[in-house]
């Protein structure tokens, strides 16, 4: 994470059919919004640990969890 320079890293796994990314907590919201925008999705709402996005393909949500107090892990469909 230190080498990511405040950005996100992709966790190389498709565990349970999801893509996994990690960010430092301080940049988590802007990092997931930027990543998803690059993939063609626009953030419409955030509620606790869920981010709601809209895109040409429809609506999706991204779930996040805090890990070891300093990091946020995001998961979403591997097809995105």
Could you characterize what this model shows?
The protein is mainly beta and 80 residues long. 14% of the residues lie in helices and 51% in strands. Strands 1-2-6-5-4-3 form a six-stranded antiparallel beta sheet, with helices on one face. A hairpin with a 3-residue loop joins strand 5 (58-67) and strand 6 (71-77). The protein is globular and about 35 Å long.
SSE blueprint and pairings:
Elements: E1 8-11, E2 18-24, H1 28-38, E3 41-47, E4 50-55, E5 58-67, E6 71-77
Antiparallel strand pairs: 1-2, 2-6, 3-4, 4-5, 5-6
- CA radius of gyration is 12 Å
Q: In DSSP terms, counting alpha (H) and pi (I) runs of 4 or more, how many helices?
A: 1
Q: What is the overall pLDDT average?
A: 91
Fraction of residues in helices?
Answer: 10-25%
The strand order across the widest sheet is 1-2-6-5-4-3
Range of strand content: over 45%
pLDDT below 50 for ≥5 consecutive residues: which ranges? none
Largest sheet: 6 strands, antiparallel
Global structural class: mainly beta
Question: What is the N-to-C order of secondary-structure elements (H for helix, E for strand)?
Answer: EEHEEEE
How far apart are the first and last residues' alpha carbons, in Å? 23 Å
Number of strand elements: 6
CA-based shape: globular
């Amino acid at each position: 994470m230190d080498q990511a320079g405040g950005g996100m890293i992709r966790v190389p796994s498709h565990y349970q059919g999801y893509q996994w990314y990690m960010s430092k907590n301080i940049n988590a919201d802007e990092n997931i919004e930027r990543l998803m925008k690059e993939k063609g999705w626009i953030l419409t709402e955030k509620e606790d640990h869920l981010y709601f996005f809209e895109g040409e393909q429809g609506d999706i949500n991204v779930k996040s969890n805090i890990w070891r107090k300093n990091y946020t892990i995001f998961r979403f469909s591997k097809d995105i």
